[in-house]
Structures
1.
Amino acid sequence: MATQLQLRKYEKAFERFDVDRDGVLQRNDITAMAEIWRQTFDVSPQTEEANRINGLAEQLWSDITAATDADADGTVSKTEWNAAMEQPEFVDKVALPFALAVFDLADKDNSGQLSVEEMIAAQTRSGISEEETRRMFDALDADHDGSVQRDEYAAAIREFYLSDDPNAVGNLMVGDLD
């Protein structure tokens, strides 16, 4: 059973995915998110990169509904979402691959790491303030080299979903939990 901290994290993640803020996840939320990423990273609509983003969004929706839509109604309620979040296989097969795809989009120079500017560009468009993003970046940059490595980011995403440690760095992945 999820702790209060975990439930709050799941709620914040749900809010990020629920683009139209109607209280359920639907395909249009995920396609809207893909459009936000495309615009954020200045990807032209008729390009291979845009097709990749759209494909990732379709795969994400398919994976989310396969893992969460218990009543098969084509929407994902908060209750269904919360139940899936407690499953490590959901994190490993759905949440983490999508988060890493976004990481790769934000990594404009294909260096395998994000600068604070790249992270700010990615996070502020999804509703996380620049201040929150800088705190997140500083915590993720464990070796203080001025960049967040892909593996550091992946570990934090996994920790976000699965840890109930109130001091875990991964708790910062969706901004402040208050």
Note: The mean pLDDT is 89.
2.
Amino acid sequence: MAPNKHTPHVLIFPYPSQGPLNCMMRLAELLAISGLHVTLLNTNDTHLRLCLSSASLPAIPLLRFKSIPDGLPEDRPRDASLLRDVAESLNKNSRLLLYDLLLAMKNDEYSSDGFPPITCLISDGFFPSFVDLAEDIRLPCLSFRTPSACSMWAYLCIPKLLENGELPFGEGVDLDEVVQGVPGMEGFLRRRDLPEFFRGAKSADDPQLKFMSTVSAYSSKAKGLILNTAEVLESTSVHHIRAQIPVTYALGPLHAILDSYRSARSCTDASSHTSSLWQEDTECLKWLDLQTDNSVVYVSFGSFTTLTQEEFHELFFGLINSGHKILWVLRPDMVQGLAWTDEIKRALPEEQGRIISWTPQQKVLAHRAVGCFVTHSGWNSTLESIVEGVPMLCWPFFLDQQINSRFVSEIWRVGLDMKDIRNRDLVEKMVREMMEGESAARFRKSARDLADAVKESISDGGSSFREFHRLIEDIKSMSIGQQCDS
């Protein structure tokens, strides 16, 4: 059936890195499977990497892919060290390109591929200028913040923390002192559980504090805020965010909702594509098949975390000394000053495990052989572990990871948090606690219970299920409103 003049068409623009792309691409697929036209817009570099790493892009009739330059020279590497450079370039150099593209797609009649004009923009919340851009061309814009709700709430509380005198910390303070300026977390959130740049701030004018505070507050200018979470996980944070941003959708975990929709609609191509920007090593799944239940420690620190050589050695020997089987994802750029060679891969005795460069993480976490997950506590990884009922040993580094790891250990009680203490003895001790005896059984039961609660939230009638359908209906209403305005 050809689209009519009220057909909704959403353009989704993720931040050009693995984490945001993961969940925003899942949202794009979900909306397209649900009958909305969707254009997923990436930077040229991200789109090329996605095409090279994936067996194929998803063949969904109502989903298409486009790309624009990020404004940086083509020969400049796009790695973790240039994360801020890419963001600044997109906000400055690519803004006019995006403006022209949106205006053309908004005003055009049906394009050659049958897509109607766009009626809504969903932009990563790290691009506050795009909210203004959409407003300039009278296009409804929703902001998508891809970290956890608890971290988003902490960012929104930066002005209150400054007013209370709890920021900046100053030197030599007790990092275990409980923070009072984040309502709902007064009983357990310590200074050390706040993002790492909070600690480094020397004054209220600290550039990172001001940037994060401004970016977070800007979400209130959009038509709504999308969070990849479930209320059963973060009800208090979602409640407080809604007090400032009333139209807030808590509709995650998106990867679990997408899996459910694919299954219900018998999407046979689901396993042939991925949102990974790295080539996945699927041979590790065959190795896992040979292991006994709950016998493997899975280790992965995501797409941007880097380790010093000292941190690498402490983690390595702690894992080895635990005596447990290990599957370790070690990116080529992960250890500072240490080349990723066959020698590193062979450093782990073959009988004790494997070191690989990238892995299909959801499938690994779902495997019966995995007993715990040593993680950087990135939000996508945390959600994937929760859904599969896998306990976590948290080694957080930056942004939302510090708060996420605190929730893992103190609120959900599905793991342990070893932030700020990184030595082989503690690694060994905590791995044993996660994998052996009564403590391991307790963590696994808590993880299974939490997984059941989250899965209920995405099932028919659950809170995330309802929130997702509310989002769809609101996008449809925006589409009708667009036609009435034009």
Note: Residues 249 and 320 are 43 Å apart (CA to CA).
3.
Amino acid sequence: MNFNKLVRISLASLCITVLLAPSLANAQDKEKKRLQAAGIVLDDFGKMKESIPSSLLKVTEGIIIVPKLINAGFVVGGKRGRGIAMVKREDGSWSNPVFVTLTGGSVGLQAGIQSVELVLVFKHSSSITAIKKSSFTLGGDLSIAAGPIGRNSTANTDYKLDAEVYSYSRSKGLFAGISLNGASLEFDTAADALFYGKGMGPAEIFASQGDPDDAVTKIKACLTSLK
């Protein structure tokens, strides 16, 4: 290869790198915004009097936060949202977040569009870590139920907590017939690679130490304060 051709190739590679750099930064910024939005949702849930009961929080080993689940349709509906998943470690601390997506469809009496802030509480961390590269269906692979309400309500002490996953949501907009049964959860490996770098799969992220971003620090603090 002659010198001039080598120079042209080097310049072309440099141009591509320069052009892709803003796109990569913008993509990483989107994931940071998702983390920030998840932290706000969790903080708001923590301030609500009628929120997740302490009796459930004591046995919680995993959580998924979807800041914006869009639910829309007319007779035939669909839902999609992007969020984060975290698991509780053996020492009681919370892991770094793995990015997830939730998608699903439904048929029935429904009309309109709705934006939902969604929190899914898992009794066992293995239910989240077992997703791996595939996905699972809520109501199919895992039992799901609307979570009991009342942070300090004595009525919750008798709640059986038989389901594996409990859902909590706050709606914005109008919709009838919302349901999470049949919705599919899977890891967003593309988002993980953008935020953490290639080679960091869900298992490595859950096991990683240190907070990769200030938003993660805030989320962990919120989870620790939810008692």
Note: Residues 26-225 form one domain.
4.
Amino acid sequence: MEDALRHIYRLAETGDGWVSNTAVATQLDVTRATVSSTFDALATRGLVEREAYRPVRLTEAGETAALDVVRRHRLVETLLVEMFDYAMSEVDVEADRLEHHLSDRLCREIERALGMPSADPHGDPIPDAALDVEHGDLIPLFDVDEAAVVEVVRILLRDDETLDELVSVGIEPSAVLTLTERTPLGTVVVTVSGTDQQTTLPEAVASAILVESGGG
């Protein structure tokens, strides 16, 4: 149920708050029937608003419970990258194993050891000890104007191969990009600041890279 809560929260962050059975099943790599049972259990505990055959939405209690899991997950991801040299593509699965076993005290100690990080390696904001979380005013890379200079803040993708490809060309949180061209095929071409390398990104990938304007 903690895994389901975390994924409902994450999917709701960038949507309208309502999350489908299919979307969570895809994230958890389980059947929709399994997710339906989990949704029923969460609804019984008052953690989601639930109607049969309809998407769910976190209740206030559900959001609090989800943020607690999200905090632990994102702190573990950050710890793995900062202290143990994990790649961004490697941390999600590892953190999924560890997140359920962290106490509040250990979370606070991890924060202190890492210098109170505000975001994990993907750029996802880390809730603080009070479970408050800040969301910046971000837009998808695909939606920025041609010739715009932007800074990558957050990458929503969790496909390991795609993440590795992005990092290999310098596209990761804090990278400054120029949207060089929009092609007739619906892709965008970007240049990473400080290099001459151009990278072509399909719409699905560029839409999952969140940026803020004025980079560099």
Note: The first strand starts at residue 48 and ends at 49.
